[in-house]
Design a protein that fits this description.
about 240 residues; alpha/beta; 2 domains; about 15% strand
């Protein structure tokens, strides 16, 4: 059963212009190579040429979420400068270090998360075992990338909606679409996304893709939407005590 996610895109004017021009191959090797070359130039300009940016996942897939390596002996301000320079390259999403020691200073605005997930799912789909809510093995790597794309949206409410075509009984379609959306939610929670930020629901065949017949298999999909942005409320452990 093949799913075709459909997500609305909202991004900053400059980023949207670049991503629109490259949307045909945003998840492809050509874009990954372009971003790697541009990032290498940006890193050299900061005086930290020993740092490199990889735009490939552990499974070899191209990604807009680079992992930085090298420069372990550099002072933290230099590492942060290099990470920020890579993050500033048009088309780059969130940045992290291979050793997990630091992140780029400039995180994308929360609304960018939806555009980032859309870009990830433009040419790849979240798949399940036949007539099941069990994610297939290949899709687990894709869920890793979706989780990374959603991290900058911490504190937002993210909706996960399951859809089916209209084959089968309506009650069965509703149940399967809800189960698949919840399976994706649980997979994201397992990857560190706060469960309180995620909402899952299934609508069965009630909302087909515009222009498709209800029975078209392309209606089988998972949709993501950032439905609201709210500030993260500090807990007592985050709030300094009165002096």
């Amino acid at each position: 059963m093949e799913l075709h996610p459909a997500l609305s895109i909202a991004a900053g004017a400059a980023g949207a212009a670049l991503l629109g021009a490259l949307s045909g191959w945003v998840s492809g090797p050509a874009l990954a190579d372009h971003l790697a070359q541009a990032s290498a130039q940006a890193v050299v300009a900061t005086g930290t040429p020993q740092i490199s940016a990889s735009f490939r996942t552990d499974g070899g897939w191209p990604t807009r979420h680079p992992t930085l390596a090298g420069g372990e002996g550099l002072a933290d301000p230099l590492r942060l400068r290099a990470a920020s320079a890579v993050r500033a390259v048009p088309g780059v999403a969130s940045v992290m270090w291979a050793d997990g020691s630091a992140r780029a200073a400039a995180a994308p605005p929360p609304i960018d998360c939806q555009a980032d997930v859309n870009a990830l799912l433009k040419t790849r789909t979240i798949r399940f075992e036949a007539a099941s809510s069990q994610l297939d093995m290949v899709s687990r790597t894709l869920i890793d990338e979706v989780a990374n794309a959603l991290r900058p949206c911490a504190g937002s409410v993210i909706s996960i909606i399951g859809h089916t075509d209209d084959s089968g009984a309506e009650a069965d379609n509703l149940a399967l679409s809800a189960a698949r959306a919840e399976a994706v939610r649980q997979a994201l929670i397992a990857r560190g996304i706060a469960g309180s930020d995620l909402r899952s629901s299934g609508v069965g065949a009630r909302a087909p893709v515009q222009g498709l017949k209800p029975e078209d298999p392309a209606n089988r999909r998972i949709e993501f939407a950032v439905v609201s942005t709210r500030p993260i409320v500090p807990t007592p452990i985050d709030t300094p005590a009165a002096r």
